[in-house]
Design brief:
single chain; 70% helix; 434 Repressor (Amino-terminal Domain); 123 residues; 0% strand; mainly alpha; 2 domains; 8 helices
């Protein structure tokens, strides 16, 4: 069964969980049983009264066969901005050795940025 993700991208975690569960043809009780939870907890997740823990999100994703990113993030939160998207497209057309160098540069810059950000919080 194919899932249409296009209209799900603006929903909350609760709404995405509910929509995917229904698309998979599962009742709240069936999902609860598959997760090893009481049905009340699934109802709370779907009502937005309670957010699943990281471990619960992982189990939900496995049972529903979706990614954890799909359950947690809005589509726009994961996509690069327009300028970066254009640059990534240009990089994708380069030979693999050049792409590897660019990946290493990016990784180094990201690590440096995160280290500076965390060290400034400690002070």
């Amino acid at each position: 069964m194919a899932i249409s993700f296009t209209w799900l991208n603006i929903m909350s975690v609760a709404a995405r969980l509910t929509a995917v569960r229904k698309q998979k043809g599962l009742t709240q009780q069936a999902l609860a049983d598959a997760l090893g939870l009481h049905v009340t907890q699934v109802k709370r997740y779907e009502a937005g009264a309670s957010l699943p823990s990281l471990e619960a999100i992982k189990k939900i994703a496995q049972v529903l066969r979706v990614t954890t990113d799909f359950l947690i993030f809005e589509e726009s939160e994961l996509a690069p901005d327009a300028n970066l998207a254009l640059q990534f497209q240009a990089i994708a057309g380069m030979p693999e050795p050049q792409q590897a160098v660019i990946r290493q540069l990016l990784e180094g810059m990201i690590i440096k940025y995160e280290a500076e950000r965390w060290s400034s919080r400690i002070k």
